[in-house]
Amino acid sequence: MGKRIEFTPTAAFWLLSKDFITEDVIINIIQDFPVSKRMPQEKDCFKIEFRRRKRWITIWVHEYPEKLLVYKLHSSSKLRKK
Question: What pLDDT is attached to residue 1?
């Protein structure tokens, strides 16, 4: 079993206001996303980007020794070039 995943109040509020994604999906994405594809941000922080239902979802995560803290989420319907 991996690290426990928690959400800040801001991230939890964002989740409650969206009908196209759930907490379980976010947790599964974080657990299953390859470490090599994580985009480092600051010390002990990374972000994950993925598509879901014609939207790009970005998750910002702070990594602690005992847990992963989701501190920010964002969605965009704009097309992005890879």
Answer: 55
